[in-house]
């Protein structure tokens, strides 16, 4: 999943910022976001969780999660 997110961060840098949070060093943030499984992907806007995926996720699952929230061209991992 990490390589998928790195590709997405490069490709969608104008529409999306991806940050990695380490559970051990940010337990308050992990708790506030309600993360119960690692890895998790949480889509935030203005500090509010809009969508989440817990556990390993495939490119199609990530695409489906992001599609309703990103305007313009659909997110695609074809180049991965």
Could you describe the 3D structure shown?
It is a single chain. 5% of the residues are buried. The chain contains 3 helices and 2 strands, in the order H-H-E-E-H. The chain is globular. The protein is of the alpha+beta class. The termini are close together. The model has no long low-confidence stretch (mean pLDDT 87). It has a single domain, classed as Glutaredoxin, CATH 3.40.30.
Task: Give a quick set of tags describing it.
80 residues; alpha+beta; Glutaredoxin
Topology:
Elements: H1 2-11, H2 27-33, E1 40-45, E2 48-54, H3 59-66
Produce a short descriptive summary.
The protein is of the alpha+beta class. The protein has helices spanning 2-11, 27-33, 59-66; strands at residues 40-45, 48-54. It has a single domain (2-66), classed as Glutaredoxin.
Order of helices and strands: HHEEH
Sequence stretches where pLDDT stays below 50 over 5 or more residues: none
Distance between the termini: 11 Å
| Total number of strands | 2
Number of helices: 3
Please state the overall shape, judged from the principal axes of the Cα atoms.
globular
């Amino acid at each position: 999943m990490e390589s998928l997110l790195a590709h997405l961060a490069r490709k969608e840098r104008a529409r999306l910022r991806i940050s990695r949070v380490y559970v051990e060093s940010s337990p308050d943030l992990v708790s506030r976001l309600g993360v119960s499984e690692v890895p998790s992907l949480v889509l935030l806007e203005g500090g509010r969780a809009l969508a989440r995926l817990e556990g390993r996720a495939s490119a199609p699952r990530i695409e489906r999660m992001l599609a309703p929230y990103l305007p313009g061209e659909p997110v695609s991992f074809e180049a991965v």
